[in-house]
Every structure is written in structure tokens, then in C-alpha cells.
């Protein structure tokens, strides 16, 4: 008996040892070694050291499936046989670094579930690596991001990284055209550098970056520079939120004409180095910079003409570190003649010639001695005020303004007045004398907004003076925005729109409200629970004359509601007139919404010419007219888009086949009953590019195949979006919520069924930009519901229909799992255009990329009358189409052109001439 016990114990100990992971690095140099891993280390999930994959013999990592964490590094080196990392799908954490160099990787597929890198992300050189999208769930990187010699066009995959403690370095990324992917980055703890990105012309994607660098812990040593070298950047506009640089600003061999975009940079603890920027004409954009902690270096900037952007600089080289030597270099700038800024002069006085290089610039700044003469105690120019302000309404002509220019001695120098670049709107006086100077502005062609210019007054032997000129153009007439909660109190919608309490109404004063209840297709339930309802009533809303979008909000809260009477089409039918023109006749809310307690919007475009918008509600064929809310918005500002988003993953799971996947089936099945017959359907949709959602509903096409019975179909929230269409089974399907979001019923008539999922989609827009839904029957009636999947050859795949009142995010792109849909791949919020305008008989319509498929056109006159217009056939290679209106009798004047497609609706202003 003892012998048997000892033998059994030995087997247990051996089995336990075999299940443990090794305490050393795992190095795989052959495919056989990889494939033997599960046999050699059964049950090993958490590696205790590094995983190193090298040499061309390794071509697949599928045998490593099950590894969840690596305590050391993941290194893929000297390996051209491994194209991706599939097999590591269960890996969530790397405590060390992720290295790839001299590898054949084309993508990082297999790392889709990686959320943490404790060390650095080091990629390259890897010339075949074209995508980082597999890192889409990576949320933290402990140290650096180093990208060298990889072939990516953008940085999509890094979008969840908001902060880096180390540096970000991009070297020789010759295919890089965009920094999108870093669009949530707010800070780096050390240097941010871009070197040799030969196709990168802007920094779009860095709009949230606020600070670069910081002091080393427990030290006064600061690290963190912004370095852009050998990269044809044309503007720095995306750095508008950058306020702090711990070390240097280095711009070398760029295509920058100025430094606009750095307008909020106030702290530069290191050096400013501008070197070999051939197109740099000025340093405008640095007006908020008050100090340069170390060196100022301006070398070989062939177009540089002035340093006016540094006018507010107080000091150079005064950072409090006694062991650091300061240098000031202004050399090889052949058009720069004035460099006697006060901080430059102060530096010269304190440091002297040994620490300065002034040479190769235009006369006036071509040598140390010339600078010395400019900086010594010379008479100075001075303006009587620092800033001259012009404020004018759009289209108006402002009066000239005068200011005094004085000198500190009794001389009579010839004054040269020079405006800064891009200030053609400023008219400077034609004089070379001091005294009263009259300035004026020409606002022709300028849009409302703020414009600034700097005027320098200079002469040989005198210190230069600077005058700021600020021009503000206000809109000619601000159109009115009015929002009214009919029959209710003031309320703020979840997207920030504020509706006032009921006002401007006339006629019979009668309102109705329900105390509670969910309203479908909106998250603003309270807005639709009140209504104004009477036999006849009106709204007379004071507005500034102009073109408006008028939005009427409805919900049937009486017929078909628990507090009211039985519902059905035809129970309430009424009319609506606006500005004397009928807009709705025998309108039936119940029929339009396909039921009670459902939000409906109707939008009308019209022109108000008498200062009052008149809306009349009158009885029609049945019962009383009603309205829940009214919006009056300038037509140019109103945005309402209905987006139809196709499903990107759909599959059903079967209780009898717990490990079988049905993702490629043409059917989606829902059935509940005995345990072994239950089937549930999972759907996944992308929300990329969406900023706000007003309503959301899922549409599925199918029917009850076993009876005429109306069977419950409920939608449940699924928070885990990691499931895949070809991987999901009954056993691994993600858990859903326990309470259904909403439901509908399905009978034996084939057709679309809509299910409201507004609130859950809104929560996902604010989160990971993916939404998963499970469909099931919760009444256990043992009836089979069949719907068409995206694999069904007949089409009619599941859809997510979104209504949004905000523009979509222009920078967003969908992930690789999403099928190409131009709605998301070209999400620019741009408008279509008309040429020529005014129009006589024909015009060219340039369609925005927001439109897809067939386009319908309507002309709408001031009275609301519509004219259907037939566009010429548009070629697939062009976004232009010719429109002929010669067949219509149209009076001269302003019209709205309504451009409508499946993906967008626009209203363009058009003037018809005689």
C-alpha cells in the first residue's frame, strides 16, 4: 500500500511540475520548438521571463495560444518567416518591452487583446510592418514608444494611449502621412521627436497634446524636447493646446512658413533652435513665449525676415542651472536685418561676444558689432499705445484710427513702417515721419472672426517699436435660435440643447402630460411626456429675418399609452401650416412612428421676412392636433444626419452544439424553450466617428417560421466586444445584461423589425466605440425566429440606424474588422458646392463625400414650395454632376437646394438670377 501511495504522489508531483512555466527566457528558433511548447509546459499561461522568437524557421505561433502574460520582454528579431503573431490572442500583459527588429512582420495580428506594456514599445526596423491596428486595446505603456523604419501610414491602434512617461520617437517612417492614432495623447514625460518622415505634412492627431517633458524625480534636471527634423511639415496648427516644453524646441529642415499653432506655448525651459527651414519667413506664433531657458539658435533660414513673434520675450539663457553654458547664435539668415530684441541685447551685455555668433545675416544684424551698436543706449521709437483695436460688423466699413509715434530724442529719422505677414487687410499710413499716424482696415472678403497684425517702426540708429493691431469682425446679423418644450417647463437635453418653458403660443390654452414612461428612439423622455394639444392653436415666435430649419417633435402619448385610450392609425390626424404654407396635412403620429410612445421629428426649411415665425396647428380628420417641442435653428447651423451602419459581426449560438460556431451561416436564429433548443443571436456594430447619438435602433429582417403567433424578440446589452464572428460559441459567448433594453414582436410576415437601443448605444459612443447586442426570446414559447445575416446572398443584413445632431469626427477611421463603408472611411463634415452661383439655367453640383448612392434634389422657394430636380448621371470617377433647371419656371431670388442621399441631407443656398 505504501508503495502505491508513493507512486501516486510521484505522479502528482511530476504533473504539477510539468504544468509550471519555466523560470527562464523562452527562446524559439524553430517551428518544432514552438509546436512542442504545450507538450513541454502543459497548462503554462503566465511566462515568468521573456519570450524570444528569432530566425526564419519560425512561421506560426498558434501553439502558444493560452499564454496570458509575459513577465519579461516579447522579442521578435531576425525573423523574416513570421508574418503575424496569431496564436497570442490570449495575451493581455507584457511587463517588459515589446521589441520587433529585422523581422518579416506585416502586422501585429494576434495582439488584439493586449492591454498593457510595462516597459517600452520598440518597433523596427521592420520594412514590411504596415499596420499597428492590432494594438487597439492597448491602454498603457510604461516607458517609451520607439518606431523606426516601419511602413505604416498612420498610428491607428494607439488611440487608447493618453499619457507616456518616457519618450515618443519616430525615425524614418517614410510612408507616414498622419499622426491619427495619437489623437488622445495629452502628455509625454520625455522627448517627442519626428525624424525623416518624408510624407508627413502636418501634425493632425496631436490636438490634445498639452505638455512635453518634466523634471526627473527628485531633481532639477528637466528632460523633454519637441524635435521635428527632415520632415516637410507645413503647419503646426495641431499643437494649439501645447503650453509646456521642459527642454528644447528644435525645427530643422521643415516646410514651415511660420510657427502659428504654438500660440499657447508659454514655457520653454530649454533652447529654441530653428535650423535650415528654407520657407520660414517669421516666428509668428510665439507671442506668448516669455522666456527661453537656455540657447537661442537661428541658422540658415533663407526666408526669415523678422523676429516680431518674439516681441514679448523677456529673457534668454536665465534658467537656474549654474553648470550649463549658454549660447546665442543668429547666423546665415540673409533676409534678417533686425535682431536687437531686448532679451538679445540683455544676453549680449551679460555673456559677451565669446558666447554669441552673429554673422551672415542682412545688414543691421550681420555682425556682433552691428548688434552691439543697435543694442547700446540709442534713442527709441515708441507708440502711444501697445494695441490698436478695430471692431466692425460684417460688410461694414470702420472708421480710421490714429495713434502717436514718438522718439526719445530731437532727431528727424526716416521711419520705416512694416506690417507682419498675412495682414493685407491693414492699411498703414504712407509716411516716413513721426507724429500722428492714421491706420485703417479693408474688411472685404473677410469672414467674421478675429485678425491680428504687428507693425514695426524702425530706422538706423534707433531702437525698434512694435504696435499690435487687432481686427474683430462680428456677423452682420445673428440669426435666432429658439427651442420650446411645448406644455412643459424648461429642460436641458442630454446633448446640451436647452428647451425653454412653453411660450409664444396662442389660441386655445390646453396642455397634457404623462407622469412617466419610456419614449422609444430618444433618451430625452421628459421632452416628449408633455404636449400642447387643442382644437386649434398657434406659435408666433419672434426671430431675426433669415433662413431657418424648423423642427417639430411629436410623440403619441394618449392613443395607445397606458394612461390613454386604445391606439391605432387614424385615431389622431391634424394639419400644420408655417408662414401661411401647409406643411403637414392629416398628419398621423401613430402611423408615422409605428406605434405610441415613440419620438418623431419633422424638419422644414423656410425663410422668415417679417420678424415672426408663424406656426398654426389645426384639426384634421380625427381628434386634436398636438406638439411636444419646437426648435427654430438657423438653416446653416442645423445638423441632423441619419446614418445606417451595417453589422460588422453577426452569429447565433446553439445550446445543443456548445462548441460549434455558426458565424458563416446565412441565418440568424432566435428560439427559447427546453434547454437544448435555445438559440441566441449576437450582433456587433462600429460607432467610429460618432460624437453624439440622439436615437439608435437595430433593424433585423426576418419572421416566425413556425406559426402565426407574435413572438417576443428582446435586445440585451453586451459589454464585452472581444467576441468574433467566426469564434463565438455557446460556451464562450460573452454574458449579456439580465434586463432587456427593449423588445418587439415577430409574426409570420417577413419584414424589418426595429428595436430601440438608444441609451445603450449612447453609453458605448462615450466608451470604446463598439456596441454588441444579444437578441433572444425571453418568453420561452418554443417558436423559431429566423433573420437574414450579412452572409445571406439575399441581402437585408442587420443594421444600426443612428440619428445624430452633431457633425461626425473627421479624424476617425474604422478598425480592420469593419468592411469598407465610405460613410466611415470618408467622414469629413464638408459641404457640397454649387458653381456658378448665381444660377440661370444650369449649374455644376460638387457632391460632398458624405453622400453615397443615388441623390435626389429639390429646390425650395421662400414660400416653401418645392420643385423636384433631376440631376444628370454622375460618373463613378467624379464627384460632380450637371444640373439643368431650364425646364422649371422659377422667379429670381434665393432658394434652398435640398440634396438628399441614403447617408446625408444638406441644404445649400442658391440664387437664381434673371
UniProtKB/TrEMBL annotation:
NCBIfam families noted in UniProt: DNRLRE_dom (NF033679), Por_Secre_tail (TIGR04183)
Segments forming domain Malectin: 481-630
Gene Ontology CC terms, in alphabetical order: cell envelope; extracellular region
Q: Which residues form the Carbohydrate-binding module family domain?
A: 643-803
Is the Lyase keyword given for this protein? no
Which ranges of the sequence are coiled-coil?
none
Q: What is its main location?
A: secreted
Name of this chain's protein:
DNRLRE domain-containing protein
Q: Is the keyword Secreted assigned to this protein? A: yes
Localization (cell): Secreted, Cell wall
Which residues are the signal sequence here?
A: 1-19
Task: Describe the location of the Secretion system C-terminal sorting domain by residue ranges.
Answer: 834-912
Q: Which UniProt keywords apply?
A: Cell wall, Glycoprotein, Secreted, Signal
Amino acid at each position: 500500500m505504501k508503495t502505491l501511495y508513493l507512486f501516486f504522489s510521484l505522479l502528482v508531483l511530476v504533473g504539477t511540475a510539468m504544468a509550471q512555466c519555466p523560470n527562464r527566457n523562452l527562446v524559439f528558433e524553430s517551428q518544432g520548438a514552438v509546436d512542442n511548447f504545450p507538450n513541454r509546459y502543459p497548462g503554462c499561461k503566465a511566462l515568468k521571463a521573456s519570450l524570444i522568437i528569432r530566425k526564419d524557421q519560425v512561421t506560426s505561433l498558434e501553439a502558444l495560444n493560452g499564454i496570458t502574460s509575459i513577465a519579461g520582454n516579447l522579442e521578435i528579431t531576425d525573423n523574416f518567416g513570421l508574418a503575424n503573431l496569431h496564436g497570442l490572442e490570449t495575451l493581455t500583459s507584457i511587463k517588459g518591452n515589446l521589441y520587433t527588429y529585422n523581422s518579416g512582420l506585416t502586422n501585429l495580428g494576434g495582439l488584439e487583446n493586449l492591454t498593457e506594456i510595462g516597459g517600452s514599445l520598440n518597433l523596427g526596423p521592420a520594412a514590411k510592418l504596415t499596420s499597428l491596428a492590432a494594438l487597439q486595446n492597448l491602454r498603457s505603456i510604461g516607458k517609451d514608444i520607439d518606431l523606426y523604419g516601419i511602413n505604416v501610414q498612420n498610428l491607428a491602434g494607439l488611440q487608447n494611449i493618453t499619457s507616456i512617461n518616457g519618450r515618443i520617437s519616430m525615425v524614418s517612417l517614410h510612408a507616414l502621412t498622419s499622426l491619427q492614432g495619437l489623437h488622445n495623447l495629452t502628455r509625454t514625460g520625455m522627448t517627442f521627436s519626428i525624424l525623416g518622415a518624408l510624407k508627413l505634412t502636418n501634425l493632425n492627431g496631436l490636438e490634445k497634446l498639452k505638455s512635453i517633458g518634466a523634471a526627473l524625480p527628485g531633481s532639477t534636471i528637466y528632460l523633454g524636447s519637441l524635435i521635428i527634423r527632415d520632415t516637410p511639415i507645413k503647419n503646426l496648427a495641431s499643437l494649439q493646446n501645447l503650453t509646456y516644453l521642459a527642454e528644447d524646441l528644435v525645427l530643422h529642415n521643415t516646410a514651415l512658413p511660420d510657427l502659428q499653432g504654438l500660440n499657447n506655448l508659454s514655457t520653454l525651459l530649454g533652447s529654441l533652435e530653428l535650423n535650415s527651414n528654407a520657407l520660414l519667413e517669421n516666428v509668428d506664433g510665439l507671442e506668448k513665449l516669455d522666456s527661453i531657458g537656455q540657447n537661442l539658435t537661428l541658422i540658415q533660414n533663407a526666408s526669415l525676415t523678422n523676429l516680431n513673434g518674439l516681441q514679448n520675450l523677456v529673457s534668454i539663457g536665465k534658467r537656474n542651472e549654474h553648470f550649463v553654458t549658454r549660447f546665442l547664435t543668429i547666423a546665415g539668415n540673409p533676409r534678417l536685418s533686425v535682431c536687437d530684441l531686448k532679451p538679445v541685447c540683455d544676453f549680449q551685455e551679460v555673456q559677451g561676444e565669446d558666447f554669441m555668433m552673429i554673422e551672415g545675416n542682412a545688414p543691421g544684424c550681420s555682425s556682433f558689432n552691428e548688434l552691439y551698436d543697435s543694442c547700446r543706449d540709442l534713442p527709441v521709437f515708441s507708440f502711444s499705445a501697445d494695441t490698436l483695436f478695430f471692431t466692425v460688423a460684417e460688410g461694414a466699413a470702420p472708421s480710421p484710427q490714429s495713434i502717436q509715434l514718438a522718439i526719445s530724442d530731437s532727431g528727424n529719422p526716416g521711419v520705416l513702417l512694416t506690417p507682419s505677414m498675412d495682414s493685407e487687410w491693414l492699411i498703414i499710413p504712407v509716411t516716413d515721419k513721426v507724429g500722428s499716424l492714421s491706420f485703417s482696415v479693408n474688411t472685404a472678403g473677410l469672414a467674421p472672426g478675429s485678425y491680428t497684425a504687428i507693425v514695426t517702426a524702425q530706422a538706423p540708429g534707433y531702437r525698434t517699436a512694435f504696435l499690435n493691431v487687432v481686427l474683430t469682425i462680428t456677423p452682420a446679423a445673428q440669426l435666432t435660435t429658439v427651442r420650446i418644450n411645448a406644455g412643459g417647463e424648461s429642460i436641458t437635453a442630454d446633448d446640451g440643447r436647452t428647451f425653454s418653458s412653453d411660450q409664444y403660443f396662442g389660441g386655445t390654452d390646453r396642455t397634457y402630460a404623462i407622469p412617466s414612461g419610456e419614449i422609444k428612439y430618444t433618451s430625452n423622455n421628459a421632452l416628449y411626456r408633455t404636449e400642447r394639444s387643442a382644437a386649434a392653436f398657434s406659435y408666433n415666435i419672434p426671430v431675426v429675418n433669415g433662413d431657418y430649419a424648423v423642427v417639430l417633435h411629436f410623440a403619441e402619448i394618449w392613443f395607445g399609452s397606458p394612461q390613454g385610450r386604445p391606439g391605432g392609425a387614424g385615431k389622431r390626424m391634424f394639419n400644420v401650416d408655417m408662414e401661411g404654407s401647409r406643411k403637414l396635412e392629416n398628419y398621423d403620429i401613430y402611423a408615422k412612428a409605428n406605434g405610441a410612445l415613440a419620438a418623431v421629428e419633422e424638419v422644414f426649411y423656410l425663410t422668415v421676412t417679417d420678424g415672426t415665425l408663424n406656426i398654426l396647428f389645426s384639426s384634421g380628420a380625427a381628434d386634436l392636433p398636438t406638439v411636444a417641442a419646437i426648435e427654430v435653428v438657423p438653416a446653416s447651423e442645423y445638423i441632423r444626419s441619419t446614418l445606417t451602419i451595417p453589422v460588422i459581426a453577426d452569429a447565433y449560438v446553439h445550446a445543443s452544439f456548445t462548441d460549434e460556431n455558426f458565424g458563416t451561416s446565412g441565418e440568424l436564429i432566435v428560439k427559447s424553450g427546453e434547454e437544448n433548443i435555445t438559440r441566441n443571436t449576437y450582433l456587433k456594430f462600429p460607432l467610429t466617428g460618432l460624437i453624439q447619438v440622439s436615437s439608435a435602433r437595430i433593424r433585423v429582417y426576418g419572421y416566425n417560421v413556425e406559426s402565426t403567433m407574435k413572438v417576443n424578440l428582446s435586445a440585451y446589452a453586451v459589454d464585452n466586444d472581444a467576441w468574433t464572428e467566426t469564434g463565438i460559441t455557446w460556451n464562450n459567448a460573452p454574458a449579456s445584461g439580465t434586463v432587456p433594453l427593449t423588445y418587439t414582436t415577430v409574426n409570420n410576415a417577413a419584414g424589418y423589425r426595429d428595436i430601440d437601443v438608444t441609451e445603450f448605444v449612447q453609453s458605448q459612443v462615450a466608451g470604446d466605440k463598439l456596441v454588441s447586442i444579444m437578441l433572444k426570446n425571453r418568453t420561452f414559447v418554443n417558436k423559431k425566429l429566423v433573420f437574414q445575416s450579412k452572409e445571406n446572398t439575399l441581402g437585408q443584413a442587420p443594421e444600426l440606424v443612428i440619428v445624430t445632431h452633431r457633425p461626425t469626427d473627421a479624424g476617425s477611421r474604422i478598425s480592420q474588422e469593419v468592411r469598407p463603408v465610405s460613410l466611415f472611411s470618408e467622414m469629413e463634415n464638408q459641404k457640397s458646392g454649387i458653381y456658378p452661383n448665381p444660377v440661370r439655367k444650369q449649374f455644376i453640383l460638387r457632391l460632398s463625400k458624405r453622400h453615397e448612392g443615388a441623390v435626389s434634389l429639390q429646390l425650395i422657394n421662400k414660400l416653401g414650395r418645392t420643385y423636384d430636380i433631376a440631376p444628370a448621371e454622375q460618373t463613378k470617377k467624379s464627384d460632380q454632376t450637371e444640373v439643368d433647371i431650364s425646364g422649371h419656371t422659377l422667379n429670381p431670388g434665393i432658394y434652398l437646394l435640398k440634396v438628399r442621399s441614403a447617408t446625408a441631407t444638406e441644404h445649400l443656398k442658391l440664387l437664381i438670377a434673371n
